[in-house]
Amino acid sequence: MKKFSRQSILFSFVFLLFMLCSLLMIVVPKVFGFTMTVVTTDAMMPTYAEGTVVFVKKATEDNLVVGNEVTYYINQGKEMQTRRIVAIEDDQSMIYTIGDNQQQLEQEAIHKSQLIGQPIFHLPYVGRLINQRTMFFIHCLYGVFALYVLTVTIYVTLYQIKTESLKRTISY
Description:
Layout: H1 2-31, E1 34-38, E2 53-57, E3 69-74, E4 79-88, E5 94-98, E6 110-111, E7 115-123, H2 132-162
Antiparallel strand pairs: 1-2, 2-7, 3-4, 3-7, 4-5, 5-6
Helix pairs in contact: 1-2
């Protein structure tokens, strides 16, 4: 029984550590007002390689300057894209962009309503780990851990009831 307890504690600790790390990757950026996106093409090479996780902070009008990078929604908000600003209309309603690894401007101008912000920092190649299969695996691990905690709780409760070490205290 002692060996099972050590293994159980080690397993719980590793699972808890994994869950905490994955949760922190999602929660911490949101707390500080960042939006996280993954670069899916090589259009911004060498600045951002494919698979780079980019943390974006909301941009002010002062930061919208030719030469700065900007992240915005494309395909009716289904995807995010990061490019470099090459031109801005006088009223700042439309922005024209290009990728660092491209020869031509993006086909469509970016409307101000599509802007997310400007990249503040990035983690190269980490985004290659973040895909549909990985997210499904992480969800499965969360489910397995929840079932594990439920099973251990029921087992310990039944064991305490059986050995009469569970005492009820009722106060009126």
